[in-house]
Design goal:
Elements: H1 16-32, H2 44-64, H3 69-96, H4 103-131, H5 138-143
Helix pairs in contact: 1-2, 1-4, 2-3, 3-4
Length: about 140
């Protein structure tokens, strides 16, 4: 196992899951949305736009409520749901519009959002243990991601 010294978490921007989801959202906006056909403007395109933006926003909002177990948990659960929704939308884009988008980019984004979903799930579990007073540190919460 690699011994990586982790930086302290001072803000939501320090969370790997936030950084990954934000970078993925930027790619969706720059590389996927502009290439979708016009007839998807108010359906698939709109849905991906909302769900991909929601993931980093919910992480940031949840982080501000980290002192409240239920408050934090709700936002992390919602971010996980939005991440999974984005995966399904990207799969639809890949399968319905292979001539409009780069298939490998879709695959990479699907993998990235899948990683984000797993990170969010693990963060929720680790934070729950942390709040229950188990011998877990905040650095091990981030490490579990």
């Amino acid at each position: 196992m690699e011994n990586v010294k982790r930086q302290p978490i001072r803000s939501f921007k320090d969370l790997d899951v936030y950084q990954n989801s934000y970078a993925s959202m930027i790619l969706v906006f720059k590389e996927i949305l502009p290439n979708l056909p016009k007839e998807e403007e108010f359906d698939l395109k709109s849905q991906i736009r909302r769900s991909s933006k929601a993931v980093p926003r919910l992480i940031a909002e949840g982080y501000s409520k980290r002192h409240q177990k239920r408050g934090f948990q709700k936002y992390i659960d919602d971010a996980l749901a939005e991440s999974n929704e984005t995966i399904v939308s990207l799969m639809q884009v890949r399968d319905l519009y292979p001539n409009y988008v780069e298939i490998n980019l879709c695959k990479n984004l699907i993998d990235s959002y899948d990683k984000t979903s797993r990170q969010l799930y693990n963060l929720a579990l680790s934070w729950d243990k942390f709040n229950k007073g188990n011998r877990i540190t905040k650095s091990s919460v981030e490490h579990s991601l």
